[in-house]
Design a protein that fits this description.
Blueprint (H helix, E strand, L loop, with lengths): L3 H12 E2 L4 E5 L21 E6 L13 H8 L6 E8 L24 E5 H10 L6 E5 L9 H11 L7 E6 L5 H5 L2 H9 L3 E7 L4 H8 L5 H13 L5 E6 L8 H15 L7 E4 L5 H4 L4 H24 L2 H4 L9
Parallel strand pairs: 4-6, 6-7, 7-8, 8-9, 9-10
Antiparallel strand pairs: 1-2, 2-5, 3-4
Length: about 325
């Protein structure tokens, strides 16, 4: 089982250079992840274009993230798909079995990454033909290097791009580095930056599914909820994912309502700001798969039925049909 605190500390050392204001960025060339990238890697291998799609299939809820928040911020009509320029930091403190990233790209190895400042990343991005108006800072776990977000914001401001480009970042709710390492000035910048949205991911529906998914201590499941509460209190534009992968033997009719009770104890509308993610077998995942993982995938299809049923029990149709960007926390 992963020692999250110790691994986080070690990976942060590998993942950030405070003096140079640079972050270890993955290079996608010759990686397993490259095989799943629709467009070839760009920005000399340090970036990729991701096509976020609203609709997946009839058996799973649509995913409006980051399409709706980005479209609203950019003042454009929301389509069923949006392009984003992705930069991926090279460190993550959990090893989710369904992660679409090669595990070898998550340990800060200089063999698969290099340190880049935000200005250097923007230079590469602006050289691309028809660059997207959305930049996605992903991982890995971007919040092992939380300075990355305000550094990128400052670089965009200095270039006069802060009103033209929407910034989106991910967070797996695994640590408190946001508060531990960011200055009050940096936190204020994030809180007041108009063209920014953040998505956090709950890795399961209870402590058992959480641990099976992340290989981390079951006790950290509730820690995710505490961190989510602290972020909500900042009043930034915040959204959530959840992976519903759990044993098919789970009593979903008991576990999911209990989890939703916990969510609503943080904020009554919190379940409405959560988008369930359907887990697929990406190329890096196939070699990791075992019978337990296949059962967890099977379990997610039972879980989504109960998840949807619970939402319908707890909220009236007007709230359920509201765009996620109009749900207040």
């Amino acid at each position: 089982m992963i020692d999250t605190d110790l691994l986080s500390k070690n990976l942060r050392i590998k993942g950030i250079d405070i003096e140079r204001k640079s972050v270890s960025i993955t290079n996608f060339y010759n990686s397993e992840q490259e095989k799943d990238i629709k467009d070839k890697p760009n920005c000399e291998g340090f970036g990729r274009v991701r096509h976020f799609k609203y609709y997946r299939n009839e058996h799973w809820p649509d995913n409006p993230l980051p399409i709706l928040p980005a479209s609203r911020a950019l003042g454009i009509n929301a389509n069923k798909e949006i392009r984003a320029q992705v930069f991926q930091n090279s460190v993550c403190n959990w090893r989710c079995w369904y992660c679409f990233v090669d595990f070898k790209l998550l340990s800060g190895s200089p063999k698969y990454s290099n340190f880049k400042t935000c200005d250097e990343l923007l230079d590469l991005y602006l050289k691309e033909e028809n660059p997207s108006k959305v930049i996605d800072l992903t991982g890995g776990q971007p919040d092992l290097t939380p300075e990355w977000i305000p550094w990128m914001m400052n670089s965009l401001i200095e270039r006069g791009l802060d009103n033209d480009i929407y910034l989106w970042s991910d967070d797996n709710l695994s640590n408190d580095y946001f508060w531990r390492f960011l200055t009050n000035k940096n936190i204020d910048l994030i809180k007041n930056y108009k063209m920014y949205g953040r998505v956090c991911c709950f890795k399961g529906i209870d402590d058992n599914s959480f641990s099976l998914n992340t290989q981390a201590s079951p006790a950290l499941f509730n820690n995710q909820l505490e961190l989510a509460k602290r972020l909500i209190e900042l009043k930034i534009d915040l959204y959530f994912y959840i992976t519903l992968t759990a044993s098919s033997k789970t009593n979903f009719n008991k576990v999911i309502p209990y989890f939703m009770d916990k969510l609503q104890s943080i904020h009554e509308n919190l379940p409405l700001k959560i988008v369930p993610l359907e887990v697929f077998e990406f190329t890096p995942v196939i070699s990791r798969m075992n019978d337990q993982n296949r059962d967890l995938i099977k379990g997610q299809y039972d879980a989504i039925k109960v998840w949807t049923k619970e939402l319908n029990k707890r909220y009236d149709i007007n709230l359920l049909e509201k765009p996620i960007t109009e749900i207040s926390l």
